[in-house]
Write a sequence for this structure.
């Protein structure tokens, strides 16, 4: 009688078959995954090639459309309309009317102001010191006299002046209460006393002294202009 398979051989067969099936399954899955990856890579590369070709084609079409057609341009160019011979005079008349409505320009105003200053003389700033009440009174009356003489321009800002008229006012020692004693000097921008040539001392009432100072200063300005 022949002996049958041993129990150990049957046990080994039962273990080997599932293991072999598992190995085959793993290998099959690996092959499928690898194939899918390669297929996706080829598809992506093809898409990139197609996209690049489309972009190049679009760029060539845009370049071709942007080039002007010399024949078309020469035939469709619009003829130039000749300028009217009356346009220039009309524009000049309109500009003149606008200028008249707007009034004198800044340049004209500046020229008129400079002309006035040349006729009336230099710009002068009056500085009154000493007795506060009397100095302000003398300064006001002196300003009115000089403006009436129309030979100088009085300014309110010392920095704008060409010369400084410095007036020092003091009460006189005489018995008359309204008598003042005044020292006056006209100083140029360099700090030099240009008037009077001798001592400029005046004494009397504020009104009389102011009138005398204005009279002498205006006469000196007029004399200086005659020499020029």
């Amino acid at each position: 009688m022949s002996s049958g398979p041993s129990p150990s051989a049957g046990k080994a067969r039962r273990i080997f078959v599932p293991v072999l099936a598992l190995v085959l399954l793993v290998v099959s899955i690996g092959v499928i995954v690898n194939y899918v990856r390669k297929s996706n890579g080829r598809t992506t590369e093809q898409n990139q090639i197609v996209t690049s070709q489309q972009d190049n084609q679009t760029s060539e079409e845009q370049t071709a459309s942007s080039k002007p057609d010399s024949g078309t341009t020469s035939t469709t160019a619009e003829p130039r309309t000749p300028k009217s011979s009356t346009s220039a005079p009309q524009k000049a008349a309109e500009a003149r009317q606008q200028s008249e409505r707007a009034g004198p320009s800044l340049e004209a105003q500046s020229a008129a102001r400079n002309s006035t200053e040349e006729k009336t003389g230099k710009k002068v700033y009056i500085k009154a010191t000493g007795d506060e009440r009397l100095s302000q009174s003398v300064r006001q009356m002196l300003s009115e006299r000089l403006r009436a003489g129309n030979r100088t321009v009085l300014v309110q800002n010392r920095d704008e002046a060409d010369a400084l008229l410095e007036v020092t006012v003091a009460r006189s020692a005489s018995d008359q209460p309204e008598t003042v004693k005044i020292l006056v000097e006209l100083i140029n921008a360099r700090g030099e006393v240009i008037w009077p040539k001798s001592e400029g001392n005046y004494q009397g009432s504020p009104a009389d002294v102011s009138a005398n100072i204005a009279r002498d200063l205006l006469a000196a300005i007029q004399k200086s202009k005659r020499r020029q």
Q: What stands out?
A: Residues 183 and 199 are 8 Å apart (CA to CA). The chain is about 60% helix and 15% strand.
